[in-house]
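Sequence dictates fold. Next comes a concrete instance:
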Amino acid sequence: MRRYFFDLVSDERSEYDYRGHDFSDLSIAEEMAKLIALDLGIEPENRWSGWSINVRNAHGQEFFRVPVPQACVV
């Protein structure tokens, strides 16, 4: 198992994940990041628009970023 951290990052600020989550594979961490981004994308008033989920290890090595999608207003 490896510990992955899911930081919320925008151009103006960052919300760091200090606890992280253990996953057996990086692809599972990527799926989790996508789910988090989708969940944040449905927040009212596009609160998280322009943010991304940055996945890293305990040493700070970033593996990838998943942008938070902008909610469609119907």
About this structure: The chain has one domain: 2-67. The mean pLDDT is 93. The two ends are 42 Å apart (CA to CA). Residues 2-67 form one domain.
